[in-house]
Amino acid sequence: MLPGDAGASPGAFAILFLHVPAAWLSLLLFTAAAGCAAVTVANRRPAAAMALQAIAPVGVVASVLALWTGLASQRAYGAWWGWDARLVCELVLLLLFAGAMALRSVTADPGRAELAAAVLVLVGALNIPMVYLTVDWWNTLHERAAAGVGRSPTLSRPWPR
User: Fold this and answer.
1) At what angle do helices 127-137 and 85-106 cross, to 10 degrees?
2) Per UniProt, what is one GO molecular function of this protein (predicted)?
3) Residues 68-87, mean pLDDT to the nearest whole number
4) Domain parsing of the chain, residue ranges
């Protein structure tokens, strides 16, 4: 069922205007956190570690918002969680943000805490391309990209019933 079909509520379609930017924001924030983590590991710059510490809570909020709105829109269309690849990768992103925050708070030595959080974020950066490419790798509830380089804009398939 597509967002304009009779079975879908108007609110279910409108929630996508919040879901998509929140998901992109969480990816962008984790990319920025990975950059800060790389600088922290390579140069031990305190400014990069502080930036990573500031990005993590905002990333948690963006990830929670992306997950919540994604689950709410799926529920409106009759699906629930279903271990959709993008939802699972977004959940991993949320756990990585939360893990970086937790490492900073449970480790007594600030230098070790910054380094541990940075290493966690750098390893977790492998999740970024996975979040983006899951719709190309697996059959999920999400649409493929409607437009791309060398490709004309199309709808890939209707929403699952």
Assistant:
1) 170
2) heme binding
3) 74
4) 10-134
What DSSP state is assigned to residue 143? P
DSSP bridge pairs for 151: 148
| Secondary structure (H, E, C), 62-128 | HHHHHHHHHHHHHHHCCCCCCCCHHHHHHHHHHHHHHHHHHHHHHCCCHHHHHHHHHHHHHHHCCHH
Residue 104 class from Cβ within 10 Å (0-12 exposed, 13-18 middle, 19+ buried)? Answer: middle
Phi and psi dihedrals of 151, rounded to 5? -135, 140
**Cα gap 132→86, rounded to integer Å:** 8
Q: Report the sign of the C-alpha dihedral through residues 53, 116, 129, 65, in that order.
A: negative
pLDDT at 4 over 50: no
DSSP bridge pairs for 148: 151
Q: How many residues does the chain have?
A: 161
**Structure-model confidence comparison of residues 115 and 144, the more confident one:** 115
130 is written with which tokens? 């996975």
* Strand, helix or coil for residue 2: coil
Mean per-residue pLDDT, 111-136: 88
**Per-residue pLDDT at 36 exceeds 80:** yes
Note whether 117 and 59 are within 8 A (CB): no
Contact present, 90 and 23 (Cβ < 8 Å): yes
